[in-house]
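Thread: quick sanity check before group meeting

JM: Hey all, I'm pulling together slides for Thursday and realized we never actually wrote out the predicted structure for the chain we discussed last week. Dropping the sequence here so it's in one place. If anyone has concerns about the input, flag it before I start.
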Amino acid sequence: MNKWSWLAPLSLTMLLVGCATDSKTEESSQTDAKQETEEGADIIFESLQAPWNVEMSGDTFYITERDGKIVEGTQGDYSRTAPRLTEEVVAEGEGGLLGMALDPDFEENQLAYVYHTYEQAGELRNRVISIERKDGDWIEKSILLDGIPGSSIHNGGRIEIGPDGYLYVTAGDAAVPENAQKLSSLAGKILRMDLMGEPVEGNLEGYVYSYGHRNPQGLVFVGNQLFATEHGQSGHDEINKIEQKNYGWPLIEGMEKQQGLVTPWYEVGNRSVAPSGVTELDGKLYFGTLVGQSLRSIEESTKQVEQVVTDRGRIRDVMTDGTALYFLTNNTDGRGNPEKNDDVFVRFDP
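JM (edit): ok, ran it. Output follows.
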């Protein structure tokens, strides 16, 4: 785009460093996962298989597993179903069946939206589709958006329906950092579309709502304000207040500044924690961490951070019903140290 033609080209060194250090971000968990019991914690499900996203309707939970299954059930009792899709889920590296959002009228129409990795012409891609729950099965209904660049790393994958009724979707840079700065590419973006898959009028370009993202992993609306978590290259993980702006990757990182680019609302510093799913409760954002192996909170007013749960290993997603928190561990994804009965889905009273 012409508006960015003044930016200096990325150096080959910078690109190579980004790829080389990537395996240290979400990526490796060195300390052993513990299975002690936190006070106020209650295991809802156990023996999950690399779970990624949790949704709730009434008393029923819906959990995506990266190998292409959807777990459905109430406390202590669940079933596992492989959706009937037109493209096979490819669970390679960080790819697979990732984000899920239930339609606002789910109880009536049984529709949901999912993000998953697939293969096209020998290359990994990601797509957003709608699926319908019918007679105990999930069946693909429509393709909202496909051809999102994919890779064994940096697929993004979180889906959130905003208070405006639109679908917000995170897409990673798919290990090609310079694409995060190209409005012509869907990589390294937060995308916005309606529930039929059409881009929303007022987007920056096409489906692009914001750009300059490396690997955004979590989304939550607090009122009308969207927050996103994002993995940094080597440390410098971020939580951003999302507006229709350029968040800088790979031109700036962490708290570096450059005209026209947004620095993070919060960043972790030099040591990565790999923040993933995020929710909000009583003036705090709660976010799971993978390398950090904890559930953490951050005060919206002071940005004071606390470790809330530290005995469950890698935590991929977190949600709330307005009273309690619920989180998914992610110790069986090949980067954790699973204990007996991992992975688990836990209810926690903060």
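AS: nice. The chain has two helices and 24 strands. The radius of gyration is 19 Å.
JM: adding both to the slides.
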